[in-house]
Amino acid sequence: MKIRRVAPLLGLAVGVSALACPAAAEITIGVAVPRSGAYVAVGEQVLRGVEAAARDANAHGGLDGEPITLDVQDDACDSNKATAVANHFVQSKVGLVVGHVCSNASMAASEVYAANGALMITAASVAARLTDRGLPTIFRVCGRDDDQARLSATVLAERFRDRKIALIQDLTPASRTLAAATKDNLNRIGINEAMSVAFSPSDADDAALADRLKAAGIDVVYYGGDATEMGRLVRISAERGFKPQWFGTSAIATQDFAKIAGPASNGVLMTFYLDPSRQPAAASVVQAFKAEGVDPTGSTIYGYAALQALVAAGNFAHAGDPKTIAATLHRERFDLVLGSVGFDAKGDVTAQGYVLYVWKDGAFTPAGK
To answer: Which residues cross the membrane (predicted)?
Structure first.
């Protein structure tokens, strides 16, 4: 693939109406995020990034010369609602969609988009099976859960080989998949977990689980739950005198985790995508966010990158239709806030994958070696 240099969408446009432009024609891009339910914080991060990228794109001429408007819909990370949102976009003739956030929602909605020739690009859905189907108009700018599980297993093996490790999951699809994949990778390395537990999160069940893990002498707990569930479990465990090494996933990459867990969040490890807010390619965008009082951590820059990729491909191809933009994304490389990236035949981004982070004083930073 050739590297195509595109005009970077740097800085939030000041004084530009959210998505307004005097031209008569416009391109509507659908945005599907959870604005209700357990993953609202991640949805807000993605939406914040998408809105900023749309403003910046419009300040530089829009997509193929036409201004961008956003049709924002709430799927609540629910498969049925996601399907309804996808059908809404198709019926409204919206052919470009940034979304969804949760993998189960993306899986359900992607079937509708693929069947109708619409393009979907997600900033946060990590399920490997989403792109393993090879649907030509389905993309992601984030990582894959199988890559995340491999890193988790490697870290557990390298840092905690001689410690008692518990792998727990709360029966949600994402938590179950990550626990199973991490267990498989860990066992293949030659390490067996001391416990493997499924539970239903609640104050009572969290307390009972903490007591059970403490009684078993568990040293390290790996959990793929969301920020709310893990935050509560970490806090309740600490209150009951159980303070193991906690190990979370990209699902807790929001400050909600630290707010709920409180001081017990300090030292918690977490796998998450490479944080582009610390990279040179995103410096101007990050600076503009911070000037508005916004901390662009978590999935914010990935939301920005998702829309930025659509604009870059559309402007390169001088087209606004999903089929041409999808083909361009598969074929070319672009300079985005993630760096110089392209997309493989499956629709996975060719950017750096997961890294290890540690929480301290309400924020997460690279954990180092």
So the answer is: none
Q: What is the pTM of this model?
A: 0.84
Q: Residue 304 is encoded by which pair of tokens? A: 């920005």
Q: Which residue's structure tokens are 């300079």?
A: 335
Regarding whether 295 and 182 lie in a shared domain, the answer is no
Over residues 324-353, the pLDDT tens digits come to 999 999 999 999 999 999 999 999 999 878
- Give me the amino acid identity at 330: H
Both 298 and 216 in one domain: the answer is no
Q: Domain range for residue 339? A: 3-143+276-352
Total residues found in the chain within this entry: 369
Cα–Cα distance, 327 to 311 (Å, whole number): 13
For residue 291, which phi and psi values (nearest 5 degrees)? -65, -25
Q: How far is CA 261 from CA 39, 42, 161, 249, 347, in A?
A: 16, 17, 26, 15, 36
What is the domain-level CATH number for residue 236? Answer: 3.40.50.2300
Same domain, 76 and 47: yes
Torsion region of 254: left, alpha or beta (phi above 0 gives left; psi -120 to 50 gives alpha): beta
> What pLDDT score does 202 carry?
87
User: Across residues 252-273, what is the average pLDDT?
Assistant: 95
Which of 7, 101, 100, 13 has the alpha carbon at shortest distance from 52? Answer: 13
Q: For residues 29 and 278, which has the higher predicted lDDT (pLDDT)?
A: 29
Taking CA atoms, 328 is separated from 50, 275, 294, 312, 343, in Å, by 20, 26, 32, 9, 9
Q: What integer pLDDT is reported at residue 369 of this predicted model?
A: 60
- β partners of residue 356: 271
Task: Band the pLDDT of 23: cuts 50, 70, 90.
Answer: very low
Query: Rounded to 5 degrees, what angle do the CA atoms 125, 131, 132 make?
Result: 130
CA dihedral of 246, 250, 253, 258, whole degrees rounded to 10: -20
Report which of 224, 221, 222 is spatially closest to residue 251, judged by C-alpha positions: 224
Same domain flag for 132 and 242: no
